[in-house]
Amino acid sequence: MDIFHVNSNQVTQLERLDGGPPPHGFLWIDVTHDEVAADPAAWRDTIAKLTGTLVYDPHMTDVVNLSHPSYFDSTQDYAMVVFRKLALDGTGAPEEPASARKIPPALTKLVTKPVAFLLMENALVTVHAPNSRTIEATRARLLEYRSKRDGSANGLRPPGSPEELMLRLLNAMVDQYLALRQPLTGQIDRWQRALLNPSSAFKDWNALLDARIELRKLDHLCEGQRDAMQELRDYMVDTMDGSQNGRIKDQMLVRVNDVMEHITRVLNHAQRLESTIESAVQIHFSAMAHRTSEIMRTLTVITALFMPLTLITGIFGMNFAVMPLLQDESGFWITIGLMAVIVAVLLVLFWRKRYLDDKDR
Length: 361
Hints:
Elements: E1 2-6, E2 11-14, E3 26-32, H1 33-38, H2 40-51, H3 57-63, E4 71-74, E5 78-86, H4 105-108, E6 112-120, E7 123-128, H5 133-144, H6 162-178, H7 181-195, H8 205-239, H9 246-316, H10 331-352
Parallel strand pairs: 3-7
Antiparallel strand pairs: 1-2, 1-3, 4-5, 5-6, 6-7
Helix pairs in contact: 6-9, 7-9, 8-9, 9-10
């Protein structure tokens, strides 16, 4: 468990804290799922000692549930937000075991893990998986401000409240989804070219199906995130005292709206990619049907040319003793000439009917 004291002047990491929450600023208590799961009762007692707030049993269960979707809930003492972030280390929740599915590298990055935020009046508690890059990067930036508290304009301004810190973390987590748009689009473009390539047959149907499944999961994930952020925004609007600084309230609402707008952009992009896949598959089968139609047209023309020739050879193959041209020395050449004339007439007829038009032209 890491404890940080955040105020307007500096951010300090505390080894221990006695005597309850500090009179100025607020606490950021950062802990991993493993630490909470090791002894939930002791962890809850520690949080109650540090913040003066007791976490309820259902929320204790939600905190250590690695399969929990994005979610928001509130009590009289605190609010809870569960947000699923990208697991950039490639390890996902237990409900997402490694399988033999042929998922492209761009889509394997869509593995997610939950991060729980307990928003209190004087503290923010974060519970996340080990080695969270977003949490570690935020901690490093906040601690860097300690060496620049002499009034320098450089560095990150410390958050003024637990709400602001939580929204900064959420915004950074959503930005990770935005960073995936380019590789995902590139993968879909490569599939489109492969689907419409007439020189080779497309064989990655399993990978394409898995990609569609992953994009559908991303749709549901973003919808859950957006619903949780909407409930958080409503909670902030309802609980912020009107006597508070209106500018601070507006700033918080702007940050919430910014997070929601980023989630909406990710959701819209995922829906566009899914629609693109469906369109590419439809175009692929349309092209295959057109190619089959061209082949059948060619075979039909060949069959039509040989049908009268087959009729003539069938007639002359009859076992009659007396037949025209059968005993004539030039009968063979006359028959061959007749066949050639029939073929030429049929070709002219097909050409005038535009049955022989080049498909490229």
